[in-house]
Amino acid sequence: MKKKSESKLKIIPIGGLEQIGMNITAFEYEDSIVVVDCGLAFPEDDMLGIDLVIPDITYLKENAEKVKGFVITHGHEDHIGALPYILKELNIPIYATKLTNGLIENKLKEHNLLRTTKRKTIKFGQSINLGAFRIEFIKTNHSIQDAAALAIYSPAGTVIHTGDFKVDYTPVFGDAIDLQRFAEIGKKGVLALMCDSTNAERPGFTMSERTVGKTFDNIFENHKTTRIIIATFASNVDRVQQIINSAYKYGRKVVVEGRSMVNVIGTASELGYLNIPENTLIDIDQMKNYSNEQMVLVTTGSQGESMAALSRMAANIHKKVSIQPGDTIIFSSNPIPGNEKAVSKVINELSSKGADVIFQDVHVSGHACQEEIKLIYSLVHPKYAIPVHGEYRHLKAQANLAEGLGIPKDDIFILRSGDVLEMDEDSAKITGKVHVGAIMVDGLGVGDVGNIVLRDRQHLSEDGIMVVVLTLEKRSNQLLAGPDIVSRGFVYVRESEDLMGAARVVVEDALDECLNRHVSDWGKIKTVIKDSLSDYVWKKTKRRPMILPIIMEA
Amino acid sequence: MKKKSESKLKIIPIGGLEQIGMNITAFEYEDSIVVVDCGLAFPEDDMLGIDLVIPDITYLKENAEKVKGFVITHGHEDHIGALPYILKELNIPIYATKLTNGLIENKLKEHNLLRTTKRKTIKFGQSINLGAFRIEFIKTNHSIQDAAALAIYSPAGTVIHTGDFKVDYTPVFGDAIDLQRFAEIGKKGVLALMCDSTNAERPGFTMSERTVGKTFDNIFENHKTTRIIIATFASNVDRVQQIINSAYKYGRKVVVEGRSMVNVIGTASELGYLNIPENTLIDIDQMKNYSNEQMVLVTTGSQGESMAALSRMAANIHKKVSIQPGDTIIFSSNPIPGNEKAVSKVINELSSKGADVIFQDVHVSGHACQEEIKLIYSLVHPKYAIPVHGEYRHLKAQANLAEGLGIPKDDIFILRSGDVLEMDEDSAKITGKVHVGAIMVDGLGVGDVGNIVLRDRQHLSEDGIMVVVLTLEKRSNQLLAGPDIVSRGFVYVRESEDLMGAARVVVEDALDECLNRHVSDWGKIKTVIKDSLSDYVWKKTKRRPMILPIIMEA
Fold this sequence. Notes:
The structure is a homodimer of 554-residue chains. Chain A is an alpha/beta fold and 554 residues long. Chain A has helices spanning 58-62, 77-80, 83-87, 98-110, 179-188, 210-222, 237-249, 259-270, 309-314, 340-352, 370-380, 392-404, 451-463, 497-516, 522-541; strands spanning 9-13, 25-29, 32-36, 52-55, 67-71, 94-96, 119-121, 127-130, 133-139, 148-154, 157-161, 192-194, 228-231, 253-257, 295-299, 328-331, 356-358, 384-385, 419-423, 428-433, 438-442, 445-446, 465-472, 479-488, 546-553.
């Protein structure tokens, strides 16, 4: 009989935002912590001016001596993007598969962290020991190569974390997901399964990446006389491989355009994840030597990102490529929720330039649908289910699937950021909450933009600002200069001279009243000015610009 | 033989934005103009703080004596919403079917325009003479009742404008689309067809509204023990009718919640478009007298609009309804492009409160898919095709369909706002361009927010503002007060005292240099301050707040 563990295993998701990327989860057993993934999130709509969001790792820093390392499932931004920021605060080793490690290396280089960071490349099937834990990397399939599921062995039991995955029986590169290993570990007994929920609302099975290659062949066959431009995700190396394959087959040269794509393709190619026939890839400057029907461009911008290569082509501001009537342009992607309008805008622009735009059925997802999720549950047969990776609705959808597979409701846990789930073979329970948070990065500033600043930006964005300035004499409070009113983002001042003139009178009256009543507290004077002006402007315009009174002392 | 017309017919779309609602089209023949629809648009993402957008009708005002009336196809905002604004500038009569007219009446009341506006209710099959034109209203189906297609007869030929439509053989209320009449007019010869393109990318046929009623019945049958809350479009009276039908069948009371829905239901009910069994509709305050399984709530908020009733329930800020675990909540709608994230947010909130959220397959579109579009083309058999209502990609998709039906490419016109298409039986050609534009409405201001103001709002929203104030003596240019720096939306000042202190020094140095060099032009001084501070802040933070120097004179 197995000796029973004394302590429980703790699982703590510490990404500070609910359900929007920023994957980072702590596994804790006694004095050992391992951290799975370290992702960033892109700003929500109300995070005006923010570039990206990273997790607040206070909990890890407070337990720094316990933290043994980062174990990374794959190389997407929402799993590796926060590493350069977090490593500056907590320098611990990183364990990842080869391509993932290559992509991390690029990031560390950019942030000058290469020398100071310990990294190790792990092979599928290989295990590493980190304190009380042993972690095994298991081959999966995903929209980026070298994605791994993790078997996390602890004295309290085994947890399987799928990472982001799909089941692809015929992947473009490398092996299919190692279903046998999932089954083998499952057979030995698995405490908890943490499974990707992204597509848990979708019935059926995600199609093989290879089906997209066939679609490319069809499109190439039917568009032999036009230039072909294909936009896809920069990190989807297999997709690019299939474009190269079709191009080679149909005698076309391939140009890769867009910084992030050039980088990923470079790394993937160096590390042997991409097989490029000689003389197929050419530089963008060589394009002029070839006719349209000899060319394929692979480009970034499939999400309508305004600065990406395809968007610049569509807007006529790309330096080297302009869209021509008759161009065949393929979106080999689906819009990520929130990007629909931006994508549509680019499609409209391209199509109004006479291009033939193809955007339906030239993409497959990288995430498991319902039947694949059920398959993994059936192979692993966990005691507890902990749906991960998705918005609440997706986690809930997986919870429903798990329940349908016979897992009791009480053994299914939808965790919120900061929840501490303690478990062993006898029981599992949320026993506490640790401090978590989202830290906003804006330019060089990490964490110097908070809610007050965001609220101000929101306010400014809606109705602009009116600045009221005046100078008072130090002792007498006598008005020396002003009040002057300057506005930005409020109304065209030239067309609103009357309004601004009247506003000045309102401020003067408010000020007179204060001074006549010998109100000497400048804070009070500011409040009176602000309120009077705000009331007046609201009455006249039904707008509420930010009003900023500044009193100077002379 | 028909006598040949001397003049040509002009068709001029004058909505100022490309492809985003704001439907308004002028038909001009010699000294007669009729205007089809008068819609508003909702602001694009970059129109910060704007409430709505209306067309610039300069062209109509310049030809005011020619304009005979507005002919309205149906009562959706993108077809009637600009009327109250436009009527203030150009008071001409309105012709519409009964429900459409009722909804217009509500708007005119709000704007105190009821007495001064001539309106006439037109029946299907009825024609009106407006100058050189005769206009016939033809019954169609859409997601609002009483939608009409228009046959526009002119001496130069007949144009059929479908309005927004679908083919519903089994509508919930009233008759199916009058396909016979389309055929009859088509048989006599139609110059041009202007057909709804919204769903031109979608193959097949849009399902009957009645299918949703069956889905409701199924859901009611399977959720007999829970409260049911259904969100849908305020103007979809047939949808509400079907909810009422299911509620009555399953012995539930119905509460309607959300201002716009209460209004539309009120009007539709008064005018006889809604059939409510006695004692079925109750007031929200009576809800407490009934148990959960006796209640259905019909509510606004199906698009995740932050101020709508359902969103307020989800966020726990609705005054009278709070979501309870076990509530069955149905989104009887699809997210309109751009609203996906907002809808998802509400679904997450509801679902994390323990509600069972149903959002798939409880909706049908109000617009024709490809097979319906082809049907109309085949019945009408026009010489020219002018796809309308949709983004460019949708117009293009319909153009492709028309070409597939044998209409020569040169006879298909994708018009841009302001294009003047002149046509008769011999030829059709874009011959000119009239002034068009989008006028932004912000609070009470119509047109006082332009591109400069929007750019400023954008700038302010990204990095905030730094205001630099100082007082100089009138003649000597001696510094009397300041420089003081106040920022909003830039950084937490308390955490950035060093930065703000250093910024003040930068400004002081810049100012000293100006004064030492006897630069007396305040414009120049402001520029020097702005540039120095901007450079400094960029170097330190990689941000570009708006910098607003204000010099006061004392």
